[in-house]
Design a protein that fits this description.
The chain is α+β, with helices and mostly antiparallel strands. It has a domain of about 50 residues. It contains 3 helices and 3 strands; from the N terminus they run βααββα. A 3-stranded antiparallel sheet has the order 1-3-2.
């Protein structure tokens, strides 16, 4: 048995990085909290396809990191507040 195996585990474990999601911080000291499409859809309570459409229509603030789309959590919350429609009464 090697160092990266536990008892009863016959396959060697490969180190995998955790997926960047809507749940956490990446980096360390920067404090930036970026969301991917599933994270943004969970925050907004909508389907992922709706978030992708908002990006395609450039209606929501986002960042491109290579081929990936990321959202700053604070900017998304500001965007929600700026798009609030006041009641008539």
């Amino acid at each position: 048995m090697t160092d990266d195996q536990t008892e009863g585990d016959e396959r060697p474990r490969r180190g995998r990085r955790s997926r960047v999601g809507g749940t956490g911080r990446r980096g360390g000291s920067s404090g930036a909290n970026y969301l991917d499409v599933p994270g943004a859809s969970a925050l907004l309570g909508v389907d992922e396809c709706f978030v992708r459409r908002l990006v395609w229509e450039r209606r929501i603030p986002y960042y491109k990191v290579g081929k990936y789309v990321r959202f700053d959590r604070a900017e998304v919350l500001e965007w929600v507040e700026s798009n609030r429609v006041a009641p008539l009464r």
